[in-house]
Input
Amino acid sequence: MTSAPPVPAARYPSPRALLEKYGLRAKKSWGQNFLGDEGILDDIARLAAPRAGDRVVELGAGLGHLTARLLARGADVIAVERDRDMARVLRGELGDRVRLVEADAARLDYGEVARMFEAAGPTSSPGAARRLAVVGNLPYHLTSPILFSLLDQLDHVSRAVFLLQREVAERLAASPGSRDWGLASVLLQREADVSIERIVPPGAFLPPPNVESAVLCALFRPPGDALRVADPVRFRRLVKAGFAQRRKTLGNALRAGRVVPDEALARALETAGVDPSRRGETLTVAEWAALDRALGT
Output
């Protein structure tokens, strides 16, 4: 692989210039909207890589605008991109300054990626995080599969910084009892402190999407430091059943979901101190976790 000359992030070509240079256009079917706003790119890079030497996995690196800023901050970057046209741009503009993995981000093995970092040697900074930061501009149709894949592999991940459709970000950062509080909110917030860092207007992208976007930051707690549950697989099924029929009381919704026998459910609700006449959307993460623990192993 040949090395491209270093390109300062501030002078990285615009999305329009790169598309014209390589004879490409955004693929609507792939949900491609390229972020070119320098201030927003800098903010995302800062959130993903607070220190030089931090290990960052960029999902859907696209034309390389965020990649260039991560590299400028001294991050150790592995870029994941399954579009061969985009991979050609990344190689042409960044050369061997970035390691490129041509793979589906929704099926990524973060353990394997972590081993790739280890094989390359120690990070350049003694204070750099050993667990991975994951960052990316996620198309709407891939948000859920990428998020659930990430939640299943948190031993390897310290933080996630995602550019998402605003309504999706608001659901993930929602509070109990709100209209947006749901399955994904509970599952993510059991593991992480979640915040929306900024709203991104359509005009920041090429081509502009029809909706606003938001930068979401999730800081994952150390392994074993999340709200403890007895059975993580059952916990996910339990919460899913509780939100499946929002108009039903919690007791009726969980019985309809057939997660556990009715007798065990009744005892667990009493033990956890959760009133079965409440609706699932009113329970906090701690209450959901307490209910699963009351069900036992």
In short: The two ends are 52 Å apart (CA to CA). Residues 1-7 have pLDDT under 50 and may be disordered.
